[in-house]
Amino acid sequence: MWQHFQFNQKSLHLSCHTNEQLNEFDVLLRSEWDRAVTEGLFTFQITDDVQRRILDEDNLHYMIELNPDRYGKRRTPFPFEHVNTPFDSLKFNFNKIKDAEILFSLDNEQDHDKYLVIINNSPIRPYHVLLVPHRGLEQAQVLNIDCIIFGLEFVASSAHPYILAGFNSLCGYASVNHLHLHGIYIPHRFYLQTIKCSVFDTKSNCYLLDAFDTQAFAFQCANVDDFQRTAESVYKVTNYLSLQNIAHNVVIAKGDSFSSPSTDVLRIFIWFRQSIINGQMFDRCNFACIELAGFMPLQYENVFKDLDEVALREDLNSIALPEERQQQVKDDVVKLLDC
């Protein structure tokens, strides 16, 4: 049986401005990951000795990294045409993994099967994990409140300032139709942690990331008492997007409060974007949750050498919904949040 880590409501780590550090949670995650490496459970050799650079022409400081193995050796993603696709037990799902791929469970009880942290066997970088809630329920890749809270607890449990949890819907680069989040340590502070956002809806304390044509709704949590309420608000948005067959990505990260930058919070972003049908990949930028957060693994060396922030912004803007559709989404979300 795998180990269990008990979530401590009185010990939250919300700052993105501390030095890189590890606590008991991080040590457990990394030691179990290293154990999985020695047991040969990954599809390729993982190293942090890679080419990486920061696009610093503007104020985003987007990180890009040359990572051909992630593209060439990962499990072939299943093709999806709809955001809502029923779970299929005959296809790969997390009930088919080996017990050795489970690193530990996380919750505030002693439930060893509720919130599982498992390896991503084709990782973007070292210590890239997957968060799987209630895997035995065979839930499709549609975000729910329980899964959102799992992501909040995962990020808040770590002492590392640049950890994040992320969700990809089907047609938003999810490759497995079994409910899960990504968990990953980013090498440096990323732009989502400090970027300013516009007030969107005062009643629900919702903000809007509108620095690009592809926009995102944003919420924040300052303490554990906010987790349930915020998760419910996030779910209102993601459930609407799912029902409307709109692809979306979610990121949970430590950062500055939108209204009071000196206050540490968890930031939650929800992008609504064009669908990627059947897992189509582009030669340059492919935007899933981690890439939208500010960390872009690239397949080709020439792209890595030539990419600049102007081109990256062009690619990000290109996945925006048509302007009229985007406005309709925002109008509908305001009504949902205010009811």
Number of domains: 1
Which spans have pLDDT < 50 for at least 5 consecutive residues? Answer: none
Summarize the amount of helix as a percent range.
Answer: 25-40%
Strand order of the largest sheet: 1-4-5-6-8-7-12-13-11-10-9
Euclidean distance between termini CA atoms: 45 Å
**Would you count the extended β strands for me?**
14
Mean pLDDT: 94
What structural class should be given to the helix and strand makeup? alpha+beta
Number of helices: 8
What is the molecular shape? globular
* CATH fold-level topology: HIT family, subunit A
Can you describe this structure?
This protein starts with a strand and ends with a helix. The chain has an 11-stranded mixed β-sheet. A 3-stranded mixed β-sheet has the order 2-3-14. The longest helix has 17 residues, at 227-243. α3 packs across α4 and α4 (227-243) packs across α8 (323-338). The protein has one domain (3-338): HIT family, subunit A, CATH 3.30.428.70. The protein is of the alpha+beta class and 339 residues long. The protein has 8 helices and 14 strands. The model has no long low-confidence stretch (mean pLDDT 94). A hairpin with a 6-residue loop joins β2 (52-55) and β3 (62-66).
Summary, kept brief:
The protein has 339 residues and is α+β, with helices and mostly antiparallel strands.
What's the layout of helices and strands?
Blueprint: E1 3-6, H1 24-38, E2 52-55, E3 62-66, H2 68-72, E4 102-107, E5 115-119, E6 129-133, H3 145-157, E7 163-168, E8 181-185, E9 198-201, E10 206-209, E11 216-221, H4 227-243, E12 247-256, E13 264-273, H5 289-293, E14 295-298, H6 301-306, H7 309-317, H8 323-338
Helix pairs in contact: 3-4, 4-8
